Sequence to fold (286 residues):
Amino acid sequence: MKKNSTIQVNNVSFSYTNRPFLEEITFEVEHGEIFGFLGPSGAGKSTLQKILTGIIRKYNGEAIVDGHSTKKITDSFYETIGVDFEFPSLYEKMTALQNLMFFASLYKNKTRNPEKLLEQVGLLGDKDKKVSDFSKGMKSRLNFIKSLLHDPELLFLDEPTSGLDPTNSRIMKDLILEEKKRGKTVILTTHNMEDATELCDRVAFIVDGKVKALDSPHNLIMRKGAVKVKYTYMDGIERQGECLIHEMSKDHRLAALMNANKITSIHSSEPTLNDIFIDITGRKLA
Fold:
């Protein structure tokens, strides 16, 4: 395992049946980065997370997390990781604060202040409300801060903004970025390309149990897609033109229009990460 790697995965394969589900997955995650698994439903993202968190241990290959083989981990391993799966695991008959206090009691080390965490996700005013009365979004936020209780060094987040309105989604993303600033490593599973572009240092495109591409969102976009410049200009009536940004100096019409002060608008546009995903994998996210 490399010195600065928190996770090292080598040729991991797994199957629920006789047919392969994950095939020879290899990658590493550096300490302090946000690493994203991106792909459509059923691609193998969540299964890969279950291997990395020790839920699935019968697999081929090697998965080393924080120096431990996930085939042989002990209870102490869970003191160092935080897990927020897509479907909340909370006690419905208990209040939000009671849930956090209970889960905090399961850890050996001192935990973070539950009320402070509730305040950060806008749930402090609902701390004494039973979870059964919470909306889906409220449960998602509560489940997220449950994963932060013991101040883990490594976070596994599965669709953390799913079902949230824009305001609460922003709160969650800011908290994830704050954890990164604190030196934490984050594994993010999502099919939300906007979240991945904003949050992730690197991403792995996973389709049909295989890694189809792995790089930073910026590099993937720049490698596969050329940035275009689109402009409008007056020529009796308003007209439009475009060129590639690295060929602007060769666009004699654009130069002439600029010299004649006939440009009415100009802007650049680049492919999105979703465009690149479709280009590389031939698949759409669903």
